[in-house]
Request: fold
Amino acid sequence: DGVTSMMYKHHGLQVAFTGNYDEYFGMATDVDAMVYLALANDMLHTLYDGKVTTIAEDVSGMPTLCRPVQEGGVGFDYRLQMAIADKWVEVLSEWGSDENWEMGNLVFTMENRRYGEKCISYAESHDQALVGDKTTAFWLMDAEMYTNMSTLSPDSPVVTRGIALHKLIRQFTMGLGGEGYLNFMGNEFGHPEWIDFPRGDRVEASTGEFIPGNGNSYHLCRRRFDLPETDHLRYKFLEAFDAKMNRVAGFFKYMASDHQYTSLKDDGDKMIAFERGDCVFVFNWHPVNSYSDYRIGCKKAGKYKLVLSSDNPEFGGWDNLSTHHDGSYFADSTAHNGRPASFQAYIPSRTVAVFALEEDIERVGYTYGEEYVSRVVEVSNEHV
Reply:
């Protein structure tokens, strides 16, 4: 935590890092701190080779921070890709209607990281979940999370949109944003409330400002893990999608792949398509337009199968594009969007679809698995 504050004598305060190398290699850099971080990483990776992972919270983009000490780097394994969560707050609070969302801007934010230095991507973290800010789910659905999350009540346009975009935001962040993915507890199912630790009234020493507390209340010092376990609440859809999203990532290991290519970012259609590892990801962000026989570029010809669709009914989708009944997609040598091959598919509005070659599915041993993965795990006493 706070690596940026350590690395610079100005502690990163009131500094807008632009990427200019003078910002990193000059008198403002705290050399003692850099040497300490390199020594700490070298010691950890030497004594606990293969059994330790170090991650730096750095917003500056310090070059070589995540390269081995033997190369002259600082030795961290990953840095947190902190700009992504800030971008989603900007999108949801400032960009307005869905028609205004800029596909190229979203792609640039996900891909804007140093080559050869691994990053952990996340759509939101404790910064968004603590009191004073909103979680992604609350930005999307706000007060309707308290009234319209039950499947026993009619569909609400706000909640329907919120659930659809919550799934797209998470898969887009995981798929394109880095070499690892971070989730803050409860956000996998769209936790409706922030975390507020017990606080008493206090006076800020530097300014004399009075800051009210919450009466040292524990009321919001919690995570409601019972919500996705309640069968009639729509939180179960978001958690089920998260489980399947992680299952696909675990089998195909696309975040560890060197292959990443964005072939489509269309502001008119609100479409984004990219390849990551052996998977082809297709996002339709348009609020109303669905596309039949939409051509998707890919790196190899062959028979593709749908391995994940946010439109599956167990994810709160409409079952228009589903892994349960969709067949094969045959990619031929028709070049498209700079790719040597392509296939056509139906892509409903506000959905993400993940495709893979049938031979790659068989190679990694992927199966769709259980419809729903419960978080309740039995643990016997002898294994505690």
Notes: The CA atoms of residues 14 and 258 lie 35 Å apart. The radius of gyration is 22 Å. Residues 157-176 form the longest helix (20 residues). DSSP finds nine helices and 14 strands in the chain.
